[in-house]
């Protein structure tokens, strides 16, 4: 039987104030209850903690700003609630801690939502809102297409969260890093397992998760850590090959995995030590110690590489990955420099391609014009913009687009549409230019006359600064010249800005109405920056000083006599 809105309930209080309170559970919230208890016990509300069923009752839910009622918090009629008294300073400290935790929870939720949105836009072939593409690369830095759109989306989301988690690890924020890496692991789990065998990101993520356990000194997660390390080792063998054969071929005989395996063996040794498997722990830690020794860079080899003009951090990284070979390290650094330059050029080209695709607009199914098919049609002698419109209308089907281009009536229709679109762009650009001058304080009628006179922005500004009659005379002369030579108008004007036509506006909404306004730009920019700053060898580039100290400490614990 449902309670009516005015029905009174009872809660039994104990602790600071003991007794029964009559209230309406569906109308009262935690703050109201705390206020009532404080009034009855003659103390400040900030000094009251309320506990029900072993949990502290909070004013807000973890992921929401809405204040829940007692019913929504699971408080029932005749429930027992304990009130405890704390100092006001402690109460404020707890309150601040709760607020900080709520903010942290909201931020992590925003991060996950942003990763989901970015992956969705960059994995299904749709035209991205941004001027870049997120792509998946193998260990050699080559772009790869993995499985279906669903697999690609899952991998992209996992990679973004993984990159963000690694940045948090570098900052020493292991708690948040663990949360983000857990979300990344969940994203990867949505991908076909056969696809995941091609990449080593998942086992590396699992190693990093256990590293967070270790740095947080969370012994309670030992069993989970052991399972993750087993999966990580098996995963690395699948992706790198037996005895690292595949990785060695991809990396030209180099040894980028040493630091990663040092961390893996250290963690395996720590788990074995704390679970009483002392011989297994000694074996793993001794192997990790040998790798640590191999990763120490001598001053002589470091100086030799730095004398070639390379920075210390880059020189150390290259020497570690080439087994201290100076010539090999220099070759690696030159290769990485060339790859970085090539990637920058490809990024510029892709940005230009995205800009061009946005200019043409989207197909009926919200896909961009296929530029490779457009190039094929242009090579046959068709005008680029007309061919692009034919592809756009025909969902990038080259044969249908070719039919439209070779039929006189449809070709004429395409050209008329292109011309009308150009005129619309020019009108919009003209209106935008007029508004910019009006905002400077010039009279609108004078601005219209000056802009219609043509010329560069400097020439327009000069006319606006002239006395009225002189400005009008110059504008009239320019307009007469334009009428006499209509084909030269574009040449006498400054380059047009990126067109803001209807098709471009549709690009921003290609994932549903209002999608652009719902974007969490701050979180998306953070994720994009993390991805952009990563490189193919970044996962193997680990400073192992903390690992070295831990290896020494645990080996000393193994050598020390057991307590009597």
TrEMBL record:
Organism, as annotated: Stylosanthes scabra
Name the UniProt record assigns to this protein: NEDD8 ultimate buster 1
Organism lineage string: Eukaryota, Viridiplantae, Streptophyta, Embryophyta, Tracheophyta
Highest taxon of the lineage: Eukaryota
Residue spans of biased composition, Basic and acidic residues class: 393-407
Domain Ubiquitin-like, chain residue ranges per copy: 29-81
Domain UBA: start-end pairs: 296-336, 368-408
Residue ranges with Polar residues bias: 484-494, 501-511
Region described as Disordered: 393-413, 484-532
